[in-house]
Amino acid sequence: MQLRLISRAGPVLLLLAPLLAITAGRFATHSELAAGNPRTAALLFLWLCADALALALIAKAPANKPGLRALLGAIAAGCIVATLAAAGPVRNALLDMHAVIAAMGLTLAAYLGWSMVLALRRWRATRSLEQTLGEILPARLVTFAMHESAMMRLALFSWGAAPDVPPGAKAFAYHRVVNPMIAAFLVLQLIEILVVHLLVSHWSERAALVLLALGIWGALFLVALMRAFRLKPILIDGAGVRVRSGTIIDLYVPFDAIEGIGGAISDAETKRGDVLNAAILSHPNIVLTLARPLEHTGFLGRKRMIKRVAFRLDQPAPFFEALEHRI
């Protein structure tokens, strides 16, 4: 049990350790000692940022051997962070060291040039903006940004859009169960946004505006979630079942991979690593047992092998009838 907890906490620790080190270094640049020795403080902070990000990359890489381009990117990111995050006097001292600035510029140029060549090749091969940007920026960051961009488009520009049902496919809705609960959360969040803004504005207008922006983003995210649940139903086409839960889950299950279909599963079973639970804020009423494991890629690229797929439909009977004729 302890080994499992440590293995799960490992990625979080690898993310937090460099952030904590850089944050501590940033506070140190605001000290009197740093103000009295700005050039030394600038070099130490630059080394800290580059070293922390590079060591985190090495620790996460397979066999602790990251590629040369990835290591170059970590060092370039450290240069940018050190320049932006340092205290004013320390930053000015760093910018006055022309040889150091030239070395930082060459590092950044080498990484960007190398990455642009690979990005251009990727674009020509795939025409995928996400994969192209993933050659320049961290892939998980690009995936997160693309997902958030899609959610904002859903919230703001999808009104009046028809559900995504390809020709020849039959759609099965699940939004009538979950959307009323999300709507209740949305109303509570709107009230919270107003109350928090009024209270915090008495202390700091800037902090109130930041919290207001975050609150509006959260409210739009809930609106987008409701829209996605309606516009992306579960599908049965000529070859299999496409299990979707808005933009969160999308798994295609071929008919020949389905061994059985049922409607009962316990809460404990839905939390198993080999069970994909696509029922959001509700309990599944349909369970597909697979004849062979299928790989599912989750949010931010996490992969696992699935043996059962559980989800909830507003009307499960028509789905049972349609699927029984296919398997």
Mean pLDDT: 88
Shape: globular
C-alpha-based Rg, rounded: 25 Å
Give the number of helices: 12
The count of strands amounts to 8
The assigned structural class equals alpha+beta
Parts with pLDDT < 50 across at least 5 consecutive residues: 1-9
Largest sheet: 4 strands, antiparallel
Q: How many distinct folded domains? A: 3
Strand order of the largest sheet: 1-2-3-4
End-to-end Cα distance, whole Å, is 40 Å
Residue fraction in strands:
5-15%
Helix proportion: 55-70%
Q: Helix and strand string, N-terminal first? A: HHHHHHHHEHHEEEEHEEEH
Protein name: Mechanosensitive ion channel
Keywords: Membrane, Transmembrane, Transmembrane helix
Organism: Qipengyuania gelatinilytica
Transmembrane segments: 41-58, 70-87, 99-120, 141-161, 181-200, 207-226
Structure description:
The protein is an alpha+beta fold and 327 residues long. It has three domains: 2-133, no CATH class; 174-231; 234-324, no CATH class. The chain has twelve helices and eight strands. The protein has a four-stranded antiparallel beta sheet with strand order 1-2-3-4, covered by helices on one side. Strand 7 and strand 8 (303-311) form a beta hairpin. Residues 1-9 have low confidence and may be disordered. Keywords: Membrane, Transmembrane, Transmembrane helix. It comes from Qipengyuania gelatinilytica. This is Mechanosensitive ion channel. The chain crosses the membrane at residues 41-58, 70-87, 99-120, 141-161, 181-200, 207-226.
